[in-house]
């Protein structure tokens, strides 16, 4: 391995290990109370103990993210296709997407719980869908607009129909952008799904478990569920990242 | 300039049109969908549309004008929304400022020391992809429990702390990308003039980073607002929007306009925070020849 | 390397006959911009005979690319009359009477080299097997037979441009429109491409309208060089090239004294462009 590669992998790993070690030592030496910061070993012990529950909760929350992600992405791609075609739709959708991106969407949670009932996962999936909409819409639209003048001229010279233009140039060209949008959206989607659970409703997800454990002063257990949440976020990130890169490679990007 | 102002006006007009359209769809759904909602295979796919679940738009607006509770001298809902919004905005702003300063500092450190970048950047990037906000219910437990001499950790500080660490990460990543954005031709020019590292930082790297930093600041502001609201919900800290959302939601059955008033307040808060960042961007517009967002 | 070339061959036919590839009569183009109207092209009269190679040369803003785009029906003239094989440009475009290549190769990066060459055939409903056969043939012709399965990103700029030229020939057009196709290439690749283009054109017998910045390139390739001047864009002079018949031009031609004489002629036409344009004004 070259020195650069060593530094690339070794440095973050060493830093992570040092941080973990420092955390452990700090908790043991200072005797800080667990409600402030439990020791990593305590969190690990709890994680092993409640593992089946962590797994089930992660599955429940993960399903919400997945369904919401698909719903939101579908709506966003549809809206982007319309906006690319119609100036009015674009003028209506683009400020809406920009506004949605800066609004705390999770605030909808209690009202959606009233609308759909607290015994269903629909409100959470809807929140994920709304959160996902803005980044996917913005990126897909950018991709659809990215048609090079030379490609536009070429297809006009070939007397291509609008459908042929879309099939051969616009849509394939927008695909990498769509997947970039999905990668960005998946992280915010996971966050939204977990946070939506802080607002009440069904008690089957990671967010609910974290609040429940914290409110019964089982702090190490709460941290164990946080570890689960982090793992869930990582899974979604890595899967969407892999998809993004696979598409980019298929599209001939270097 | 006038062209830009005209465009902004037009975008606002269309934004309002989109809002009106949404209200129209809302009323349409309310009129068409059965009051009990629609369930498919046990999953609720369309909402209940009675006046409790989906109040008329005008009822929500009218509710904002009336007083919050029946108590004598109670504020109107609109005033309560404004007060709560102002409270949360200050806390989020405090957290955002801390996060921005810390994020910029880390970015400069990473730009200065390659080892620091190699060791820290992967963690910063990773931390953006995981739900760190999940820690909110744990951080809020610190309220009233930490004492360092005369200093006592307040509940609102927990809220601000969450807002700050959420703002911190996007700013650090955006600023680092911006600091590294000057082309070799530009850095070579400074090198040829025997400009030192700090001189290059101040005269080249910082101005060049603006197109990257402004979107990061906006993203940081949005996440800081979400973080503050979620932290307020988790702590039940009084005074802010988070508290407003929870307490108004509890009165949903008897007073269906109130939960939506709280949501409107939260949405407005997000817009105001983004608008404030927009002002920062306006001050730096000389450097924003092209904006780069992730 | 100098190969003695035969004495200047007769110039290619320039007379207008019914099947002339391009006929322009008083063609003008005015663009409406924010800062007012810009006259890009004014009073252009030009005939390109079938099988003739005509280059358009001139300073930036002389409207040479605009003229090409009008012929291709990528833009519409604001005045005058333009026909391609006796038909309006739009009909010629829809009937696929011409092939086109631009300065950027403009390959679709997600399609293989072969699929890029097949694109026009695919768009016009040519069957799979015929497409494949034609693409193989064309890629062999431009010397890229071994690269059919590559993606454009894996090819050098010169190779990409060769793919673009193969693509422009896919439907055996009797007119080729080329807008500085070698403009972004290095000098050595450029000369090789020119030699290849001369060979390809001789094989296909197509008429070519070729936009370029380079005097030697225009001279080497053309039967006639149309020199244009800017503001407003118009034809200032037409220089017939006295070199050997295009098919017999080789690398050696570049060191021929006739070649230098024609280069000088075009250069003088270009530099005297201002005077010549004024002369036209007074006509």
Description:
Chain A is mainly α. In chain A, 81% of the residues lie in helices and 0% in strands. Chain A is globular. The relative contact order of chain A is 0.13. The model of chain A has no long low-confidence stretch (mean pLDDT 87). Chain B is mainly alpha-helical. Chain B has two domains: 1-54, no CATH class; 57-287, MetI-like fold, CATH 1.10.3720.10. Chain B has a two-stranded antiparallel sheet with strand order 1-2. In chain B, α2 (57-65) packs across α10 (257-283) and α6 (155-179) runs antiparallel to α8. Chain C is an alpha/beta fold and 283 residues long. Chain C contains nine helices and nine strands. Chain C has helices at residues 64-71, 89-94, 113-123, 128-141, 157-168, 187-204, 215-221, 257-271, 273-281, and strands at residues 22-33, 36-48, 53-57, 79-84, 98-101, 175-179, 207-212, 224-229, 234-240. Classes of the chains: A mainly alpha (254), B mainly alpha (294), C alpha/beta (283). The interface between A and B is large, with 62 and 68 residues.
Would you kindly provide a brief summary of this structure?
The complex is a heterotrimer of chains A (254), B (294) and C (283). The mean pLDDT of chain A is 87. With 254 residues, chain A is mostly helical.
| Morphology of chain B | globular
* Global structural class of chain C: alpha/beta
Q: What is the CA-atom radius of gyration of chain B, in angstroms?
A: 23 Å
Q: Which range best describes the helical content of chain C: under 10%, 10-25%, 25-40%, 40-55%, 55-70% or over 70%?
A: 25-40%
- Strand percent estimate of chain C: 15-25%
Classify the fold: give the CATH topology of the largest domain in chain B.
MetI-like fold
Oligomer: heterotrimer
Q: How many domain regions of chain B?
A: 2
Pair with the biggest interface = A-B, 62 and 68 residues
Give start-end ranges of low-pLDDT stretches of chain C. 1-17, 273-283
Q: Which tags fit this structure?
A:
heterotrimer; A: 254 residues; mainly alpha; MetI-like fold; 2 domains; 10 helices; globular; B: 294 residues; two-stranded antiparallel ribbon; two-stranded antiparallel sheet; 4 strands; 70% helix
List the helices and strands and how they pair.
The complex is a heterotrimer of chains A (254), B (294) and C (283).
Chain A: H1 3-30, H2 40-49, H3 51-85, H4 87-102, H5 109-116, H6 122-144, H7 149-157, H8 162-196, H9 206-215, H10 219-250
Chain B: H1 2-32, E1 38-40, E2 43-46, H2 57-65, H3 77-112, H4 114-129, H5 136-139, E3 147-148, E4 151-152, H6 155-179, H7 184-192, H8 197-235, H9 241-250, H10 257-283
Antiparallel strand pairs in B: 1-2, 3-4
Helix pairs in contact in B: 2-10, 3-4, 3-6, 3-8, 3-9, 3-10, 4-6, 6-8, 8-9, 8-10, 9-10
Chain C: E1 22-33, E2 36-48, E3 53-57, H1 64-71, E4 79-84, H2 89-94, E5 98-101, H3 113-123, H4 128-141, H5 157-168, E6 175-179, H6 187-204, E7 207-212, H7 215-221, E8 224-229, E9 234-240, H8 257-271, H9 273-281
Parallel strand pairs in C: 3-7, 3-8, 5-6, 6-7
Antiparallel strand pairs in C: 1-2, 1-4, 8-9
């Amino acid at each position: 391995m070259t020195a650069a590669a060593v530094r690339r992998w070794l440095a973050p790993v060493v830093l992570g290990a040092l941080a973990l070690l420092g955390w452990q030592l700090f908790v043991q030496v200072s005797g800080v109370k667990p409600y402030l910061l439990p020791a990593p070993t305590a969190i690990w012990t709890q994680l092993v103990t409640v593992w089946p529950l962590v797994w089930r909760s992660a599955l429940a929350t993960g399903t919400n993210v997945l369904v919401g992600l698909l719903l939101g992405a579908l709506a966003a791609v549809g809206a982007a296709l319309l906006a690319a075609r119609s100036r009015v739709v674009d003028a209506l959708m683009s400020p809406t997407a920009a506004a949605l991106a800066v609004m705390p969407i999770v605030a909808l949670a209690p009202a959606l719980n009233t609308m759909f009932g607290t015994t269903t996962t629909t409100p959470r999936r809807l929140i994920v869908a709304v959160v996902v909409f803005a980044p996917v819409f913005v990126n897909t639209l950018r991709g659809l607009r990215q048609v090079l003048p030379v490609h536009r001229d070429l297809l006009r010279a070939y007397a291509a129909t609008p459908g042929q233009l879309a099939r051969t140039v616009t849509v394939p060209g927008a695909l990498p952008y769509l997947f970039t949008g999905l990668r960005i959206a998946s992280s915010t989607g996971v966050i939204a799904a977990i946070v939506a659970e802080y607002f009440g409703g069904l008690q089957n997800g990671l967010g609910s478990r974290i609040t429940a454990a914290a409110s019964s002063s089982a702090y190490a257990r709460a941290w164990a569920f946080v570890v689960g949440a982090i793992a869930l976020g990582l899974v979604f990130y890595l899967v969407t990242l892999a998809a993004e890169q696979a598409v980019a490679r298929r599209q001939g990007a270097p | 300039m006038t062209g830009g102002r005209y465009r902004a006006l037009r975008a606002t007009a269309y934004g309002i049109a989109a809002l009106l359209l949404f209200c129209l769809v809302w009323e349409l759904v309310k009129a068409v969908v059965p009051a009990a909602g629609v369930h498919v295979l046990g999953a609720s796919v369309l909402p209940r549309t009675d006046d409790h679940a989906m109040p008329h738009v005008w009822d929500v607006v009218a509710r904002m004008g009336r007083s919050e509770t029946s108590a004598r001298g109670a504020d109107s809902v609109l005033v309560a929304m404004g007060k709560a919004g102002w409270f949360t905005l200050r806390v989020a702003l405090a957290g955002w400022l801390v996060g921005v300063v810390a994020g910029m500092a880390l970015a400069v450190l990473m730009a200065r020391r390659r080892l620091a970048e190699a060791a820290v950047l992967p963690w910063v990037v990773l931390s953006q992809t995981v739900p760190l906000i999940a820690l909110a219910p744990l951080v809020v437990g610190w309220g009233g429990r930490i004492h360092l001499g005369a200093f006592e950790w307040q509940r609102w500080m927990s809220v601000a702390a969450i807002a700050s660490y959420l703002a911190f990460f996007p700013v650090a990543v955006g600023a680092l990308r911006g600091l590294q954005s000057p082309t070799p031709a530009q850095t070579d020019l400074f090198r040829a003039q025997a400009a030192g590292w700090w001189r290059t930082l101040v005269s080249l790297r910082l101005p060049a980073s603006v197109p990257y930093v402004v979107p990061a600041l906006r993203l940081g502001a949005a996440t800081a607002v979400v973080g503050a609201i979620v932290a307020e919900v988790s702590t039940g800290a009084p005074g802010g929007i988070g508290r407003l959302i929870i307490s108004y939601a509890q009165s949903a059955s008897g007073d269906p306009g109130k939960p939506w008033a709280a949501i409107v307040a939260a949405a407005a808060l997000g817009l105001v925070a983004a608008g404030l960042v927009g002002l920062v961007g306006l001050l730096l517009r000389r450097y924003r020849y092209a904006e780069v967002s992730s | 390397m100098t190969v003695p070339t035969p004495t200047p061959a007769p110039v290619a036919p320039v007379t207008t006959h019914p099947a002339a590839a391009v006929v322009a009569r008083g063609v003008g183009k005015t663009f409406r911009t924010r800062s007012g109207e810009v006259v890009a092209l004014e009073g252009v009269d030009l005939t390109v005979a079938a099988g003739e190679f005509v280059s358009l040369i001139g300073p930036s803003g002389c409207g040479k690319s605009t003229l090409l785009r009008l012929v291709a029906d990528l833009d519409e003239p604001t005045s005058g009359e333009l026909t391609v094989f006796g038909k309006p440009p739009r009909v010629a475009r829809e009937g696929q009477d011409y092939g086109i290549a631009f300065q950027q190769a403009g390959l679709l990066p997600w399609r293989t080299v072969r699929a890029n060459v097949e694109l026009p055939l695919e768009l016009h409903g040519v069957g799979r097997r015929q497409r494949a056969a034609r693409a193989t043939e064309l890629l062999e012709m431009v010397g890229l037979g071994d690269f059919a399965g590559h993606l454009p990103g894996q090819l050098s700029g010169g190779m990409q441009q060769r793919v673009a030229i193969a693509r422009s020939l896919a439907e055996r057009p009797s007119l080729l429109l080329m807008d500085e196709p070698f403009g972004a290439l290095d000098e050595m690749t450029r000369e090789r491409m020119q030699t290849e283009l001369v060979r390809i054109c001789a094989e296909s017998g197509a008429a070519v309208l070729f936009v370029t910045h380079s005097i030697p390139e225009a001279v080497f390739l053309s039967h006639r060089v149309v020199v244009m001047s800017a503001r407003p864009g118009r034809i200032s002079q037409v220089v017939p090239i006295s070199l050997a018949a295009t098919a017999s031009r080789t690398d050696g031609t570049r060191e021929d004294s006739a070649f230098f004489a024609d280069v000088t002629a075009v250069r003088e036409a270009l530099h005297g462009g201002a005077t010549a344009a004024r002369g036209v004004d007074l006509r």
